[in-house]
Amino acid sequence: MAQTRTRKGKGGKAGSPKGGPFDVHGVSPELALELLREMLKYRRFEEKAEEAYAIGKIGGFCHLHIGQEGAAAGCIKPLSDSDYVITAYRDHTQAMAKGVSPNAVMAELFGRAEGVSGGKGGSMHMFDKSVRFMGGHGIVGGQVPLATGIAFRIKYHDENDVVVCFMGDAAVNQGGFHEALNMAAIWELPAIFVVENNRYGMGTAFRRVSLTDMVEKSSPYGIPASRVNGQDVLATYAHFRDLVAEVRGGGGPRFVDVETYRFRGHSMSDPVSGTYRSKEEVERETHEEDPIAILRDHLFAGGHLDQKGLEEMDTEARETAQEAFELADASPMPGPEALYAHVWAEINPNGRLCFDGRGESPWR
Amino acid sequence: MAVMTYREALNDALREEMQRDPDVFLMGEEVAQYDGAYKVSKGLLAEFGDRRVVDSPISELGFGGLCVGAAMAGLRPVVEFMTFNFAFLAIDQVINSAAKMLYMSDGQFPIPIVFRGPTGAALQLSAQHSQACETYYAHAPGVKLVTPATPADAKGLLKAAIRDNDPVAFMEGELLYNFKGEVPDDDDFVIPLGVAELKREGGDVSIITHGKMVHVALQAANKLAKDGIDADVLDLRSIRPLDVDAILRTVKKTNRAVYVEEGWAFVGVGAQIVATIQEEAFDHLDAPVVRVTQADVPMPYAKNLEIMAKPSADRVVDACNKVLYR
Ligand SMILES: Cc1ncc(C[n+]2csc(CCOP(=O)(O)OP(=O)(O)O)c2C)c(N)n1
Ligand SMILES: [Mg+2]
After folding, report:
1. Which residues have a beta carbon within 5 Å of ligand 2, which is an ion?
2. Which of A96, A165, B175, B196 is the most exposed place for a label (fewest CB within 10 A)?
């Protein structure tokens, strides 16, 4: 993959801080501006993906993160490069937050050779070992035991890293979630299990499929739980900064209910509202609980950002998305040899591995 | 005859069987309020209420097993898996509980249950969402396996599956839901399990297949016809019970056979069909049977690779030419 992957935004360009003291959860104005820049980048990226999907450049299932950017930015920013992140299929912005370039994510969405998974994974399966982004996973809850295994490795080698495992609210009803949390607890593994609680599965409200509150889900296993407002990225950042320090220090696993809201339909083919949530609810949440608007207003009020600074930042975000679109569009499709590449890690000298009778496989 | 979609045909079958037997109920993710992820259960909540049309949490192992238990205790569950890809979480309960219960209990506990949902690939859904799952279920004694290709078959076979006293894996196709066809008006239109259908009659070569691939086989047969080759297209409709007589009939007629399936070749459904043909009609074969399957790789996302990976009408034509030594 010829992409250069940069970790974190450039920082301190547009709208540089000039106002008074900025004392929110101990987050500096510079960092707050950087979080805003990142969230804008994610938002414009996802809007561009939406556009590309509408004109058929992207196929299959495509789940956007619009409205939930605070979770990607706030939970991942406190991590170091060697920490791990793993998530479900709604994975574009988490990948970027961990350091995958927007170009490589967009090329993957387009199914192109320069995509982060070579075009073979698509929207739901972004993987980048070089930045320890351990994937987008398509089976609800499937990534939770995997995260526990990654944490097992960290402890096995007595390393100092942590793994952050994202999941949707609907995933906590899978058996694997419960089995994995129990093991993480008994072996005191360095994992932070994060529910991006947008209140709904596809079209099912969480309260219809659980009598207990989200924050209670880890208590049977003795894993300390907390809740944070994911639309307030500064609170989310500060919360994770502290949690990561605890877990890195050997504190064992943690469970966090990050309250958020999905502004779009479940996937590109689903309606934004319907029997499961009203149009009014979506409008209200979109207007009042937009993580980008909340942080913007905060920075405006503190005098750390003005309209001009915001516009510069937004232009930059739009340019990044546009460049990703153009590069993806110009990127070649994977070559035919990619079809049979990476089915097996090892081609044994004896015996036959391939059985489709086509005679096209290079490793029969 | 009414013209309806495959989706509507399934919906009709569910409705009629629920009207007919109060112990039939439907459970699965998004089946009630959302009217089904693919709208197969549209309107059923309104008609039958939430006692009989039940939205489950995303807990495939849990509700799969729950329904097996309900069947042990006398209900007749229809379990909707949003797709069979997700049923891998539940397959323990299908194989270890449903398939073996009657046998382990010396005949005391029949399990009249239907596990239904789409199998196989749609378009660019990538590796975890594009699997043809027939083989996993066909392998175990105790599970029946049904794969309708047309609206009429969808309706008649689903009604039969619901009335059957054994566990039935009923595999649909996401790309079939909008497919239209004629369906008999008779509200007791039941197609018995285990009866294959010749979807096209020819005499030169037998294309044997099941499920969505029936349409690929028919496309191939049309291409061959332009070339003066007339193919039989035999749709098995159910894999277990398997209509061996129909397979032997067509093979004995044409002496040349191709099996087309959506999934992987290795230990696939076609492997069994080929074994059965050579065991029971060896002397009638003029060429080795050839299989057309998915490439032996997980399904890739990229459009060009996905097209390469899937079985296609052109590949079926090539296979027919091969058994015809053309
Ligand atoms: C095991 C399994 N069952 C069902 C599905 C289909 N499905 C995909 S996403 C989804 C809803 C998940 O909701 P949630 O966990 O809250 O995540 P969100 O989409 O809200 O981010 C469902 C039912 C699946 N992918 N995997
Ligand atoms: Mg959710």
Report:
1. A 168-169, 198
2. B175
The answer to whether position B279 is within a domain reads: yes
Question: Does any domain span residue B188?
Answer: no
Tokens, residue B262: 């959506």
Q: CATH number of the domain at A306, please.
A: 3.40.50.970
B 254-283 residues with CB below 8 A of A?
264-266
Do B177 and B202 share a structural domain? no
A351 burial type by CB count under 10 A (0-12 exposed, 13-18 middle, 19+ buried): exposed
Looking at every residue in chain B, the average pLDDT score rounds to: 98
Alpha carbon B25 to its chain centroid, in Å, reads: 21
Using the Cβ of A173 and the Cβ atoms of chain B, whether some distance falls under 8 Å is answered with yes
Ligand 2 centre to CA of A261 (Å) is 8
The minimum CA-CA distance between B158 and chain A, rounded to whole Å, is 26
Q: Examine the domain organization and report whether B83 and B165 are in the same domain.
A: yes
Q: How many domains does the structure of chain B reveal? A: 2
- Domain end among B153, B183, B213: B183
Asked if B296 and A354 come within 8 Å (Cβ–Cβ), the reply is yes
Strand intervals (E) in chain A = 84-87, 133-136, 163-168, 191-197, 225-229, 254-259
Mean pLDDT across the stretch B272-284?
98
Please give, rounded to a whole number of angstroms, the shortest distance from the CA of A161 to a CA of chain B. Answer: 29
Give the H or E element holding residue A10: none
Residues B178, B71 share a domain: yes
> Is residue B191 situated within a structural domain?
no
The answer to whether residues A268 and A354 belong to one domain is no
Amino acid at A306: D
CA of B36 to the centre of ligand 1 (A): 14
Cα(A66) to centroid of ligand 2, in Å? 13
Rounding to the nearest 10 degrees, give the CA dihedral for residues A100, A102, A103, A109: 100
Given CB atoms, is A334 within the 8 Å cutoff of chain B? yes
Cα distances (angstroms) measured from residue B274 to each of A44, B209, B242, B313: 54, 12, 13, 20
- CB-CB under 8 Å, B62 with A121: no
Residue A93 contacts residue A320 (beta carbons within 8 Å): no
Residue-range definition of the domain harbouring residue A349? 340-364
- Tell me which residue has tokens 């073996």: B100
**Does the structure show a pLDDT above 70 at A12?**
no
How much is the pLDDT for A134? Answer: 98
Residues A38 and A142 in one domain: yes
Distance of alpha carbon B101 from alpha carbon A58, whole angstroms: 46
- Do residues A211 and A360 share a domain? no
Instruction: Quote the tokens at residue B197.
Output: 């259908």
Catalytic status, residue B129: yes
Per the annotation, the verdict on B60 as an active-site residue is yes
CA distance B276 to A167: 46
B192 found inside a domain: no
Phi-psi region of A165 (alpha: psi -120 to 50; beta: other; left: phi over 0): beta
User: pLDDT tier at A361 (50, 70, 90 boundaries)?
Assistant: confident
The token pair that represents A185 in the structure block: 């607890």
Over its C-alpha atoms, chain B yields an Rg (Å, rounded) of 19
**Which of 198-237 (A) contact B at CB < 8 A?**
201-204, 208-210
Enclosing domain of residue B224: 197-323
How many domains is chain A built from?
Answer: 2
Alpha helices for B42-150 (secondary structure H): 44-48, 60-72, 91-92, 101-104, 134-138
What tens digit of pLDDT does each residue of A208-267 get? 999 999 999 999 999 999 999 999 999 999 999 999 999 999 999 999 999 999 999 999
C-alpha distances in Å from residue A94, one per residue of A123, B221, B253: 12, 48, 59
Question: Does the beta-carbon distance from B308 to A138 stay under 8 Å?
Answer: no
